[in-house]
Amino acid sequence: MGMIDDKGAGEIADAFLAAGQRVYKYLHDNYGKITHGKYESLDDSFKTIMRASTFATTEAVGLAIDAMADPVIEIKNVIGTAKEKIEELKTIDNVIKLAADLADLASGIIAKDPNAIGNAVKNLIDQIKPIKSN
Amino acid sequence: MMGSILQQRRWLLALMALCLVVLAASCTDLTAVRDWSKKSLEASQYNEIVTTYANTPERLKKYDPAGSYDNQIADRKKQAEALKQILSVVSDYMAALATLSADGTVDYSKDVDSLTTSIGKLNAGISQNTLGAVGSLVKDLLGAAAQAYQAKQVANIVEKANDPLQVILRTDLRQIVDRDFRRDLTIEKTWIDHYYDDLLHQGRPSAAAIEALNEWREERLEQNAKRVEAVDAYLKVLDAVANGHQKLYDNRNKLDAKTLIKDLYSLVEDLQKQITILVKS
User: What's the rounded mean pLDDT across residues B19-25?
Assistant: First the structure.
């Protein structure tokens, strides 16, 4: 189909289908009213037109699939990122710092040391901030 | 002395309560995001309409035996594989989004339990009640931190995926289903009518033969109508997935906004309705 795009191929398929339907309606409405020869000739045209519509539909779908190549690659990349993030969440590495800060808080509580508790809470809040703003 | 310790404890409790409030404010309930993603994943897996499209030339051979459809049968088989791969990319994405927003993605309970056990072993004269309270607070803090991290990652993923996903769901794929698959079925319907008209015109069929042919035509047309219903239902699925994702994108910094949750659950209901139609068709 050369330089035609999926939309153009679709329009051609639509045009063939509309023409085919018109020929079919004429054949249906005029059966017995036109000569056998004319009927056969129109019937052959109907078949050719309808086959062309199916062919153009196949072409249109093929071109539309090609047009989706880039967005599909983009989504595949996002899926890769999502899977990495899921793995990150499943590993303890990204909460080691948090756990350390929490241990400091626990130690502060055990020692009943308001300064240590204050520092640990501050560290925890600092630790949460980048998570919230990343 | 006693008063000072009491004051210190009150101050400590107030500080920890404040800390929890700060963390609680950062928590985002991703349940609606997860439920919508799972339903979108389920709906996008009903891809029978692709097989229907691929098999159309094979069905047309029955109504047009003189036509040459072999090349198209081969082409459409390849196209169906490509389309199913594209749909599986959408499904994979929904699955990843559902997993990333699931409650059980992170569970630090065991780590916290071992931490409180270690603290207990320090023999610092701390009561079991206090130790239990510390463990509970630590779990809440870690849970809140993990949820905040999770919500941010979901927002990042939604942000990156929205543009390409909308291109596929609202333009290219939608166009194939709405325009090409629908036309394909209209072509088939026209051929069915032509085929049975042709049979009825041959010779002088008996009343019984006419009745039988009309029944067969009706049956074929009903099958065709069901396929059209499946196309309609699949279009609604594509629209519901595209709309839901757009709403996620628009609310990506507030994924538990009440209006978003309401919209997502409304879309989940729509998706379920379309799944029921797709299963029947």
Answer: 53
Q: Say what the pLDDT of residue B152 is.
A: 84
Residue B10 within any structural domain of the chain: no
Given an 8 Å threshold on Cβ–Cβ distance, is A89 in contact with B194? no
CB nearest B96 (choices: A47, A86, A102): A86
User: How confident is the model at residue B40, as a pLDDT?
Assistant: 86
* Residue B125 domain-assigned (yes or no): no
Instruction: Note the pLDDT of residue B266.
Output: 84
Decide if pLDDT at B240 tops 70. yes
Q: Which of A10, A99, A110 sits opposite B119 (nearest CB)?
A: A110
The pLDDT confidence band at residue B127, using thresholds 50, 70 and 90, is low
Mean pLDDT of A13-26: 92
Instruction: Tell whether B147 is covered by a domain.
Output: no
Cα torsion B193, B199, B204, B210 to 10°: value is -60
Structural domain boundaries enclosing B251: 30-102+161-280
A&B contacts, CB < 8 Å: 214
A27 three-class SS: helix
What's the CA angle centered on A115, arms A112 and A119, to 5 degrees?
A: 115
How many domains are there within chain B? 1
* Shortest distance, CA A132 to any CA of chain B (angstroms): 6
Provide the ipTM: 0.76
What HEC string does A53-117 produce?
Answer: HHHHHHHHHHHHHHHCHHHHHHHHHHHHHHHHHHHHHHCCHHHHHHHHHHHHHHHHHHHCCHHHH
A98: closest chain B residue by CA: B142
Greater confidence (A122 vs B250) lies with B250
Question: Is there a domain that residue B207 lies in?
Answer: yes
User: Looking at residue A133, what is its pLDDT?
Assistant: 44
Which structure tokens are listed for B97? 């989004």
Per-residue pLDDT at A131 exceeds 50: no
pLDDT band at A89 (very low <50, low <70, confident <90, very high): low
Tally of CA atoms within 13 A in the half-sphere of B116 that contains its CB = 18
* B49, B181 Cβ separation under 8 angstroms: yes
A124 contact B CB<8A: yes
Domain boundaries, chain A: 6-67, 86-129
